[in-house]
Specification:
42% of the residues lie in helices and 17% in strands. By secondary structure, the protein is of the alpha+beta class. Strands 2-5-4-3-1-6-9-8-7 form a nine-stranded mixed beta sheet, sandwiched between helices. The longest helix is centred in the last third of the chain and has 23 residues. GO terms for molecular function: rhamnulose-1-phosphate aldolase activity. This is Rhamnulose-1-phosphate aldolase.
Length: 276
C-alpha cells in the first residue's frame, strides 16, 4: 500500500518549505504555500484520508474551484517544522461541489486548520487558472528579506519596481517579463487583500505586499520558488548597490529590449519606458 507521506506532492512541499526556511524567508509561522492537485494525484492515497473529514466554510464562495483539491500549509505552523512532522503541518483539502467550503481530507492533525491566507491563495489560484489556462498550480507567500527592504526605499509603483529588478539581475526580465505587481499596505488575512492580490495576479506572476512580503505563482513548486528566488537575488544586489551610493551604470532600455528578443519574451512596455 502506498503511503501519502511518500507522494510527490508531500515531498515537494517538504522541500519547498525547508528551502524557504533555509533562505530566511519564513521566520516563525511566516509564509504559506498551496499546490493545486488533480484527482489522479490523490487516488492512490485515499486509504490515508481521515475517516470523517472536517468541513470548513469559506468566507466567500469559490465556484471556479469546486471539487478541486489542494495541499496547503497550516495556520500558525512553522515552515522549519514541516520536514519534521508533515502530517501536523500540512493538509490536503478539497473544495466542495458548490465552492462554499472545503473538507480536510488528510493532515492538519489536532484540529489544526489551513493558513489564514487561504482566501488570498484561493482567489489568486482563480486568477492564475484564468490567466494561464490552468497551467499555474502553485501560490507561494513568503517574507523575502531584500524584496521587503526595497519597498521602504523605492516608490511603490509596478513599473518602477519592475524596472529596478530587471536591471538588478540580467535574468529577471526573462523570468518575469510581465513585471511585478504591488499593492498598497493592507491588513493581511482579509478578503480585501485577497481580492487585491488576485486582481494583480491576473497581470503578474509576482506580487509584492509592501513592508510584508511577496506572492509568487507558477506551474510547479520549483517554478514558483525559482521565480521568487530570482527576484530576491536581484533585490539583494539592488540593496547593496543603493547602499554603495546608487547605480553608476546599468542595463539600458535598448539592452533590455534586445534581451527580450533573444529569449522570446515581451517585456512590460510601460516598465521599459520608465525614466529613472
Amino acid at each position: 500500500m502506498q503511503n501519502i507521506l511518500n507522494a510527490w506532492f508531500v515531498q515537494g512541499m517538504i522541500k519547498a518549505t525547508t528551502d524557504a526556511w533555509l533562505k530566511g524567508w519564513d521566520e516563525r509561522n511566516g509564509g504559506n504555500l498551496t499546490l493545486r492537485l488533480d484527482a489522479h494525484d490523490l487516488a492512490p492515497y485515499e486509504a490515508d484520508f481521515h475517516a470523517v473529514p472536517r468541513y470548513i466554510a469559506l468566507s466567500q464562495p469559490m465556484p471556479l474551484l469546486a471539487n478541486t483539491a489542494f495541499i496547503v500549509t497550516g495556520s500558525g505552523k512553522f515552515f522549519r517544522n514541516v520536514q519534521l512532522d508533515p502530517t501536523a503541518n500540512l493538509g490536503v483539502v478539497k473544495v466542495d461541489s458548490d465552492g462554499a467550503g472545503y473538507h480536510i481530507l488528510w493532515g492538519l492533525t489536532d484540529e489544526a486548520v489551513p493558513t489564514s491566507e487561504l482566501p488570498s491563495h484561493f482567489l489568486s489560484h482563480c486568477s492564475r487558472i484564468q490567466a494561464t489556462g490552468g497551467k499555474d498550480r502553485v501560490i507561494m507567500h513568503c517574507h523575502a528579506t531584500n524584496l521587503i527592504a526595497l519597498t521602504y526605499v523605492l516608490e511603490n509603483d509596478t513599473d518602477i519596481i519592475t524596472r529596478y529588478l530587471w536591471e538588478g539581475s540580467t535574468e529577471c526580465l526573462v523570468v518575469f517579463p510581465d513585471g511585478v505587481g504591488i499593492l498598497p499596505w493592507m491588513v493581511p488575512g482579509t478578503d480585501e487583500i485577497g481580492a487585491a492580490t488576485a486582481h494583480e495576479m491576473t497581470k503578474h506572476s509576482l506580487v509584492l505586499w509592501p513592508f510584508h512580503g511577496v506572492f509568487g505563482s507558477g506551474p510547479t513548486l520549483d517554478e514558483a520558488f525559482g521565480l521568487i528566488d530570482t527576484a530576491e537575488k536581484s533585490a539583494e544586489v539592488l540593496v547593496k548597490v543603493i547602499s554603495m551610493g546608487g547605480m553608476k551604470q546599468t542595463i539600458s532600455r535598448d539592452e533590455l529590449i534586445a534581451l527580450g528578443k533573444r529569449f522570446g519574451v515581451t517585456p512590460r512596455a510601460s516598465a521599459l519606458e520608465i525614466k529613472k
